[in-house]
Amino acid sequence: MKRIFTILIAMCLTTLVIAQQTQTPINITTITAQPSPAQFTLYSGLNATFTFSTQNTTNAQFCQGTDTCTLPTASTGPNAYTVSNTRWGTYKLNNPNAGSCSPSVTFNGLQYCLLEFHFHGPSEHWVNNSATDLEVHFVYFKLDDFNSSPTGLCNADSLLVLGQRMVGNGATPNSAWTSVFNAIPAVNNTGAYSGQTVSFNIASMMGIANFNTAPSYRYSGGLTAPISIATLGLAQGNQTTSCVANTKPGSPYASNLWWGNPQRQLTQGAYPQVVSWVLFRQPIQLSVAQVQQFKTAFPDGNARAVQPNGGATVYFANPN
After folding, report:
1. Domain boundaries, the chain
2. Confidence at residue 44, expressed as pLDDT on a 0 to 100 scale
3. Most buried among 172, 191, 252, 311, using CB within 10 Å?
């Protein structure tokens, strides 16, 4: 995938002011029934076969361009990391068709383009105080915000993430995921793309016949890792507001939790809240060996701890 679309996830935060109570991930213990949930439409493209490029982001740099930061490290403990970037490394599959918005879904009447999907181990979201082996996140960006919003992907629904927790059981692999787990690239010095591609059918992988009838937890939250916003000038497109200018030291917005470089995000423990989350209740079943393929590549884990939800509402759609 072109670098411009990797940058999209970190789009400007110049107009976003959201309370820290909706940091992600959360432990879902209290839910509100949603009798008329927002609907998915026009997602038939997920039934086609697409080819994605693989990436191990372990050494990808958060701080780029005009960022000035000295990221913290932890030399001891269960999540020790001597290079800060390695703590948030993941296995990511990037969509080279993101710019043409294929595949895409329409959610709540808005079109979203699939950017990439990636994994966390153990699961980042907990349900009733319980985690699973892994969690996969399919990350979509809102086409209208990218094409015409003066501030880019800065709104609370600028990203749509479809999440599913994953469980390793038994010796029989999930054939829909075999090619994906077999293609996990080794760590390299820069976190660059591995050069390998994988083709698959996303709907088959997710195992969901109809998004609108599948039970899901939904809430407004954010990213689960720090991210650079200093290179956003490369991805402004039609945007008229400079994201970069409003995040430099001395800017009136520089002290805001939601703006600034990765060091500021880490120091404040607050990451951009630009995500509409849909976490499907039914986990994906994998084999024990498939889970181990991920754990071998990321032995220290790469899941952010659950955050206090501060009373944020989690809606439960389609409780059948």
Report:
1. 3-317
2. 67
3. 191
183-208 confidence digits (pLDDT tens)? 999 988 888 899 999 998 888 899 99
Residue type, 206: M
Q: What is the CATH number of domain 3-317?
A: 3.10.200.10
**Confidence at 82, pLDDT banded by 50, 70, 90:** low
